[in-house]
């Protein structure tokens, strides 16, 4: 295998979703790398969050004869066929953003990103501390049921809250990453008289929905802790004005580094297997760095 | 053009995919006359009229209406130019009230604002009905009135446009004698008082001779000729229509009548019929007469298990049988050709063959799969036996003429080799030629020893075909008359609830 | 005439026949107010109605479509598209942080968005009326295309930074009642009059009852159908504007599966999928049933997984016990 | 009678009438093989058919439903549910890392899953046949409930760690042809025979063409409908098993919007939404058109947003130029 005759390296970038905002920043990173190097051509596909479609697209990319695959897995447990196919074709495989289970760690060349659970842990740690000493009740707004990020972030939240005796998770619901849905559920929770002290959201869009609901119900910033993940530009606008904390994940860097790893692997250069891009907690204190 | 004539059509051509429906037809209608348009099923009568009403557009031809060249794009154009029509397939909107149906497309809106003036519409509908002597409440839903009343509403609607020419395409197919008389009054009123011309299409020859002034005949999409009614007799009219001479009605021979085969005892269905009992003997044709809505259809539907009765007993060859579903009836050798071909008869998108084998597919299976050879053989035999006109048995049934569809449906049930054949209005809307063939077929079946129940609203048909006549009135058996005693007057008397 | 003996004594059966779904609704409310005291507060009721307003307005358009024996699967995607369009035109200021930002008077932005909704609806209507494509397929095509167009317009990103005057539509109140509720009421009254008191509405029923009959009576079936889908598109746009204003953002992911909720509301409200039958007040009840259900389950803290299962059951059961339900289509 | 001169010379019009969609399909393939040389490779063709097999099998069940004038919206969610069920029963070993893990012979796991599909289908069918609920609503309810049940079963997690013998169904080959393609062929032949050569198939057409007449002909409409939906559920289960085996995991998010692709394939394949018309070979062509389109756009590297827009257009255009299309429903 290796480079084509014209010396251009083609990278097949099998992205999970073009409709997911966070992912679009990762895709921008890939595009930025593509723009920077003349001898790189990136073919990007959109799996629309469907693992079967992603598999189809990987097959199609391999049929086209790409030199390396950069994949953001839709479903980390559904990667086996991808490993098999890449091995069969002798194509380099870089995984970005969502980490496969340990048993598969020999089946790919590079991982760039972090562990989703970390975001949930960081977020919940901050919230739990902020709730001390009284503790209180928490509601968790989750992304789509079965979605890797939703699952792991929620898992991280639960691990932390379980450690505190005075914190109880009393509500959870599926906000589907959606601001309107998140807002609707938060409104209902606030009406329910359950007396939530914090609403922890799997992403910023739902957190913004929550804070709009809180505003609508005339709750002051101090009355309720609202936490998001992603540190989107919108969320940064609201930080300190209802939103208390969010978590930044450098998606752009993941995309850029992923593409770069593909490029180097094809050229035969040495690349570190694990390219950790850690989560960073964003609060009112450090928010200016992220704007 | 002579100003005697309200309408002249010349050399009109119209084809449909695969069919040339009109091949240069001429038609001249005099002012203030009732003009009969005659022809077999599929001759092109409805097509010609639909062209006038803007539903179809001719490929060729010239139309002069009230001295002006006439060409319309849609029914609303036609109405505005002065032509209204009662279509052959009466089709109201069942989900609207009677008044809304009458005013559909010409709703009255309140002054200034565009909101509907429902009250005014009801009032005007009532006035229209009073004027025509129709007794229907304008504010009930269309779905709640009987077919006959729906037909009257359609007639009233067509009349209400104050057109110069009113087209009536088989307006009496769902009416009984009483309502037909009312229709005659309406037509005479239009012709004599308002000088409105009427085109009248019907397969019932009596009606033509009662109400029409002139007759035009079509055959196979071609214009055969016109003349004033005085110059016609039935034989001449029939021979013009079918191209040969024949009897209007086949007269059934006396058949050998055997033992009682079927007995129905005290069958009742709430609000439909009550305590109906009758017997049917082997080789017998039992005519069932009555006014529209007497409950004849319902009795047969109950007998067949389609709409099971609340109470009552059925005996076949002296043994009591349970019929809860049509399949039970089929298993007991009963067959049922329903009155509404479209609603309960044909599978329009299936071939003639598939339509024929539907009730007894079991008999055509070989190793679990359909045996196309056997299907073809049986259907072919049947097709030849009763002369179904079609290029191939693969033809979709919806492409056949009404008469041939009816023959396919009769074939369907004959293939189940029934002992008892129920025929509900077997010749409604069917032309003279096909009708006489179906009558001959009924005669032959009786001769073969089959027992037949025939519901009919046509008096001559009942009288000529039945061995015995049962008359129903408002859901009850009002009497039975044997073939020799039967007269039109007696049947009518029983049908209207009088005692003999 | 003898056959007119149709008995119409006002029995319990007849009442349930007509108002069964109202009884179901009241029953649901009673149960909820018993198990959750918070349910009956003025504030929660306002809350529910405001939440319902978005799907509720869409479902009124769907009612028109379904009465003509049609359907509209495109409303959810149209909401996504119109939300990003209206958001991009209601910007506080031209800004690089937003994927698209256009500054103009919000009245214009709203009018353009309403027009866009009506135009997309007109395309749906034309495809089905003139192209003779089944409305299920015509609107399925629109659903797919509009979703793509929404994502294309903003490169998959949300559009925030909206003018306060604009967000007021979603968050403000007038004499104590939230603006979205006012809009819902106005649209319901407008739609009700249109459907039951005008020539247009009468023709909508006629087409649904018997298209051939409607044609023969001189009704321009094609034009009426186009108007129906255009009106549905217009209502969808109203809904999209409200949603955008309420969440202070437009997003190409908005509206996901709203069409199904809207159709469910409509059918629970007794509109027959075989056409010819339906009414706006009952459509409102249908939407309220779904809204109350969602609200109640959140209030009670029903587990997210169970919420869906319960919702599936309720949709079926409401239609099952609604005596007015039409025969299988 | 004279009017029966139905001319049946084999004209171009009649040919297009019958095989228009095949022509569209071939045209699409020709264009794609010109613009993308990779398209016609054996490997890519195998790819396309394997990819199509999943939706393709679902769409055959949908064809049965639609012929009876029904519809099945629940197939996507049923795939989600069955995928997690079969995955949970095809575990390599009992493991704590999986939300549910049951070890049993894979034949049992498969049989149980097929039975589950048929049972869920039977519920759909019973609701519509006996409950007289419009199938749109019955299957919408099932869609919502099954999705919730899938998530509940695994607490929203995917289920991996599957036996190789199981994943072989999705990834293995037999005489050079992938197993999913074999299964697709077998199911297509089976469904074709069932629909066009058996008593059951004739009854399906009869019910779709004229339910009242079917009853008069002694057909047990309710029983037949239940069988139709049960068979659709069975095919959906086959599809779910293939998907699970192919991706080596079950996931409650699987199958999202598959029902719409399946319905689109069916209708593009000429099945009339007003019932009574349809065929399995054409349904296969319909599914291939959608599959080839998706594959071709990926091969050409068409922008993801534009892909959706193009797909929306193609759905509409294919139905628009298919001369067999039925009148508006
Ligand atoms: N819409 C249509 N499409 C195709 N063929 C048609 C259509 N309408 C009528 N035909 C054909 O045109 C011919 C004339 O039909 P038409 O309905 O005018 O006959 P008719 O004289 O009114 O018969 P009937 O007495 O049965 O009403 C027939 O062969 C019929 O099958
Ligand atoms: N739409 C309706 N709703 C309620 N009852 C009806 C309706 N139409 C008819 N009926 C009743 O049903 C009974 C039988 O009606 P139907 O018209 O079937 O009788 P029929 O004797 O079979 O007439 P036909 O000559 O049409 O065969 C009558 O008592 C009539 O009042
Ligand atoms: Mg006719
Ligand atoms: Mg009758």
Can you characterise this structure?
- Chains C, D: This is ABC transporter permease.
- Chains C, D: Keywords: Cell membrane, Membrane, Transmembrane, Transmembrane helix.
- Chains C, D: It is found in: Cell membrane.
- Chains C, D: It holds the Pfam family BPD_transp_2.
- Chains C, D: InterPro entries: ABC_transp_permease (IPR001851).
- The complex is a heterotetramer, with one copy of chain A (291 residues), one copy of chain B (500 residues) and two copies of chain C (329 residues).
- Chain A has 291 residues and is α/β, with parallel strands linked by helices.
- Chain A contains nine helices and twelve strands.
- Chain A has a six-stranded parallel sheet with strand order 2-1-3-4-5-11, sandwiched between helices. Chain A has a four-stranded parallel sheet with strand order 7-6-8-9, sandwiched between helices.
- The longest helix of chain A has 17 residues, at 251-267.
- The radius of gyration of chain A is 20 Å and the shape is elongated.
- The N and C termini of chain A lie far apart (43 Å).
- Chain B has two domains: 5-244, Rossmann fold, CATH 3.40.50; 260-495, P-loop containing nucleotide triphosphate hydrolases (Rossmann fold), CATH 3.40.50.
- By secondary structure, chain B is of the alpha/beta class.
- Chain B is built from 17 helices and 22 strands.
- Chain C is mainly α.
- Chain C has one domain (43-328): Orthogonal Bundle (ABC transporter involved in vitamin B12 uptake, BtuC), CATH 1.10.3470.
- In chain C, 70% of the residues lie in helices and 1% in strands.
- Chain C has 13 helices and two strands; from the N terminus they run H-H-H-H-H-H-E-E-H-H-H-H-H-H-H.
- Chain C has a two-stranded antiparallel sheet with strand order 1-2.
- In chain C, helix 2 packs antiparallel against helix 10, helix 3 (75-89) packs across helix 10 (221-247) and helix 11 (258-268) crosses helix 12.
- Chains in contact: A-C, A-D, B-C, B-D, C-D.
- The interface between A and D is large, with 38 and 39 residues.
- One magnesium ion is lined by residues 296-297, 339 of chain B.
């Amino acid at each position: 295998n290796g480079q084509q005759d014209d010396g251009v390296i083609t990278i097949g970038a099998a992205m999970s979703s073009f409709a997911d905002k966070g992912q679009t920043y990762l895709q921008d990173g890939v595009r930025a790398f593509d723009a920077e190097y003349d001898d790189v051509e990136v073919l990007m596909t959109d799996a629309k969050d469907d693992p079967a479609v992603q598999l189809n697209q990987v097959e199609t990319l391999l049929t086209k004869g790409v030199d390396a695959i950069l994949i953001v897995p839709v479903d980390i447990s559904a990667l086996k066929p991808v490993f098999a196919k890449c091995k069969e074709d002798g194509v380099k495989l870089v995984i970005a953003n969502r980490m496969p289970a340990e048993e598969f760690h020999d089946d790919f060349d590079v991982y760039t990103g972090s562990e989703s659970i970390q975001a949930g842990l960081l977020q919940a740690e901050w919230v739990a501390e902020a709730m001390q000493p009284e503790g209180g009740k928490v509601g968790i707004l989750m992304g789509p049921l079965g979605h890797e990020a939703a699952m792991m972030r929620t898992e991280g939240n639960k691990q932390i809250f379980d450690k505190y005796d005075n914190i109880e998770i009393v509500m959870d619901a599926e906000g589907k990453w959606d601001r309107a849905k998140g807002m609707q559920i938060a409104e209902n929770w606030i009406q329910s008289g359950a007396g939530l002290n914090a609403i922890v959201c799997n992403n910023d869009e739902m957190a913004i929905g929550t804070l709009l609901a809180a505003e609508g119900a005339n709750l002051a910033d101090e009355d309720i802790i609202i936490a998001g993940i992603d540190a989107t530009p919108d969320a940064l606008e609201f930080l300190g004005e209802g939103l208390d904390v969010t978590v930044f994940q450098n998606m752009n860097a993941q995309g850029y580094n992923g593409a770069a790893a593909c490029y180097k692997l094809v050229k035969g250069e040495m690349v570190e297997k694990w390219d950790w891009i850690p989560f960073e907690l964003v609060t009112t204190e450090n928010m200016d760095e992220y704007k | 053009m002579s100003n005697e004539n309200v309408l002249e059509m010349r050399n009109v051509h119209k084809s449909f995919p695969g069919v040339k429906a009109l091949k240069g037809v001429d038609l001249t209608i005099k002012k203030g006359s009732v003009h009969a348009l005659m022809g077999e099923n599929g001759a092109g009568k409805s097509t010609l009229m639909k062209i006038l009403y803007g539903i179809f557009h001719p490929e060729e031809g010239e139309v002069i209406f009230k001295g002006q060249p006439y060409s319309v794009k849609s029914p609303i154009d036609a109405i505005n130019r002065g032509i209204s029509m009662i279509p052959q397939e009466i089709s109201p909107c069942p989900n609207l009230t009677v008044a809304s149906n009458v005013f559909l497309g010409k709703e009255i809106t309140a002054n200034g604002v565009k909101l509907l003036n429902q009250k005014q519409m009801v009032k005007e509908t009532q006035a229209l009905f009073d004027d025509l002597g129709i007794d229907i409440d304008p504010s009930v839903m269309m779905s709640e009135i009987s077919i006959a009343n729906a037909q009257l509403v359609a007639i009233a609607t067509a009349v209400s446009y104050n057109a110069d020419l009113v087209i009536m395409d088989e307006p009496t197919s769902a009416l009984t004698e009483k309502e037909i008389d009312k229709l005659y009054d309406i037509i005479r009123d239009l012709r004599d008082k308002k000088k409105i011309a009427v085109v009248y299409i019907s397969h019932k020859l009596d009606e033509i001779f009662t109400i029409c002034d002139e007759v035009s005949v079509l055959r196979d999409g071609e214009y055969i000729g016109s003349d004033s009614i005085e110059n016609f007799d039935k034989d001449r009219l029939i021979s013009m229509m079918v191209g040969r001479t024949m009897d209007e009605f086949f007269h059934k021979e006396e058949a050998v009548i055997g033992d009682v085969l079927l007995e129905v005892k005290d069958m009742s269905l709430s609000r439909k019929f009550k305590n109906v009992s009758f017997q049917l003997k082997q080789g017998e044709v039992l005519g069932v007469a009555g006014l529209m809505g007497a409950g004849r259809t319902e009795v047969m539907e109950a007998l067949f298990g389609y709409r099971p009765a609340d109470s009552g007993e059925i005996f076949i060859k002296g043994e009591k049988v349970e019929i809860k579903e049509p399949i039970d009836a089929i298993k007991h050798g009963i067959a049922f050709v329903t009155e509404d071909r479209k609603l309960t008869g044909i599978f329009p998108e299936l071939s003639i063959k598939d339509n024929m084998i539907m009730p007894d597919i079991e008999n055509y299976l070989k190793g679990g799969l359909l045996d196309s050879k056997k299907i073809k053989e049986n259907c072919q035999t049947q097709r030849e036996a009763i002369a179904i006109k079609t290029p191939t048995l693969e033809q979709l049934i919806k492409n056949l003429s009404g008469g041939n569809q009816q023959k396919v449906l009769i074939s369907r049930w004959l293939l189940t080799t029934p002992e008892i054949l129920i025929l509900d209005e077997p010749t409604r809307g069917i032309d003279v030629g096909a009708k006489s063939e179906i009558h001959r077929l009924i005669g032959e079946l009786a001769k073969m020893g089959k027992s037949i129940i025939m519901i009919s609203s046509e008096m001559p048909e009942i009288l000529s075909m039945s061995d015995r006549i049962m008359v129903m009135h408002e859901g009850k058996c009002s009497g039975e008359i044997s073939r020799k005693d039967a007269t039109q007057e007696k049947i009518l008397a029983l049908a209207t609830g009088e005692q003999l | 005439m003898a056959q007119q003996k149709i008995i119409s004594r006002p029995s319990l059966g007849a009442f349930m026949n007509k108002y069964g779904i109202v009884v179901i609704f009241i029953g649901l409310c009673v149960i909820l107010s018993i198990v959750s005291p918070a349910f009956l507060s003025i504030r929660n009721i306002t809350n529910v109605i405001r939440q319902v307003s978005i799907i509720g307005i869409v479902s009124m358009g769907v009612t028109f479509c379904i009465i003509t024996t049609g359907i509209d699967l495109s409303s959810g995607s149209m909401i996504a598209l119109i939300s990003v369009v209206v958001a991009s035109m209601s910007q506080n200021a031209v800004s690089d942080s937003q994927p698209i930002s256009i500054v103009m008077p919000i009245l214009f932005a709203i009018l353009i968005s309403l027009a866009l909704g009506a135009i997309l609806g007109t395309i749906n209507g034309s495809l089905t009326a003139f192209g003779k494509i089944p409305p299920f397929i015509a609107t399925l095509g629109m659903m797919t295309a509009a979703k793509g167009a929404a994502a294309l317009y903003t490169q998959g990103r949300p559009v925030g930074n909206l003018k306060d005057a604009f967000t007021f539509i979603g968050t403000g109140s007038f004499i104590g009642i939230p603006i979205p509720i006012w809009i819902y009421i106005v649209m319901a009254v407008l739609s009700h009059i249109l459907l039951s008191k005008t020539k247009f509405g009468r023709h909508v029923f006629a087409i649904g009852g018997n298209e051939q009959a409607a044609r023969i009576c001189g009704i321009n079936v094609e034009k009426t159908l186009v108007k129906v889908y255009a009106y549905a598109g217009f209502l969808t746009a109203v809904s999209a504007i409200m949603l955008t204003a309420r969440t202070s953002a437009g997003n190409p992911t908005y509206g996901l599966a709203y069409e199904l909720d809207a159709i469910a509301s409509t059918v629970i409200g007794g509109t027959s999928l075989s056409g010819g039958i339906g009414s706006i007040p009952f459509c409102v009840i249908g939407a309220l049933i779904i809204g109350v259900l969602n609200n109640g389950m959140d209030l009670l803290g029903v587990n997210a997984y169970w919420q869906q299962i319960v919702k599936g059951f309720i949709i079926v059961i409401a239609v099952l016990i609604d005596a007015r339900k039409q025969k299988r289509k």
